[in-house]
Amino acid sequence: MLAIRIAKAHKTTSCVASTLLGKILPLDLRVRETAELHKIKRGMPLDIHLDRPIESKVSMFNLPSPPKRKPLSFKDVYKEEDLKELGRDIPQLFTDGSKIEGKVGAAVVCYENGREKFNSKFKLDNHCSVFHAELAAILRAVDLTIRKKTV
C-alpha cells in the first residue's frame, strides 16, 4: 500500500496507522472534502453548519457609490513616540486574535483620555484560523466604534 511506503513502515502496519504516520488524509475523507469543495464552487447549499450564516459574495452594485461613502482617516503607529504624538484625547483601539490549543478567540480594547472606555472579547468557532480571529477583532472594533460613536 502507498501509505505504508510513504510512512516507511513495516508491511504489517495497519492502514489507519500508516495514513496517520504518513500524514495522509484517508481516501474516504479526501473524497468527501473534494465533493464539498465542488459544491462550494458551484454555489450549491451545504449540508453542514446549517445553524450558521454562510458568507456570500456581495455585488459591487449593492455598495454605495464612492462619493457617498464615508471617508476613513487613520494613522499608522509603529513606536511609542508615534502614539504620544497623537495625543491622549484621540481614542486608541487595540485588537488581537489568537488560536491556542485549537480554541480561537479575539478581543478589542478602546482607551480614551488614558482610560479604558470599553472592551470586548469573544470566541470564534474552532475551525477558524488565527487570521480569521484577527480580522474578526478588527471588524468588531469598527462596529463598536460606530455604535458607541467614539471617533
UniProtKB/TrEMBL annotation:
Transmembrane segments: none annotated. Residues 87-151 form the RNase H type-1 domain. InterPro entries: RNaseH-like_sf, RNaseH_domain, RNaseH_sf. SUPFAM superfamilies: Ribonuclease H-like. It comes from the Eukaryota. GO terms for molecular function: nucleic acid binding; RNA-DNA hybrid ribonuclease activity. PROSITE patterns: RNASE_H_1. This is RNase H type-1 domain-containing protein. It comes from Parnassius mnemosyne. The lineage of its organism: Eukaryota, Metazoa, Ecdysozoa, Arthropoda, Hexapoda.
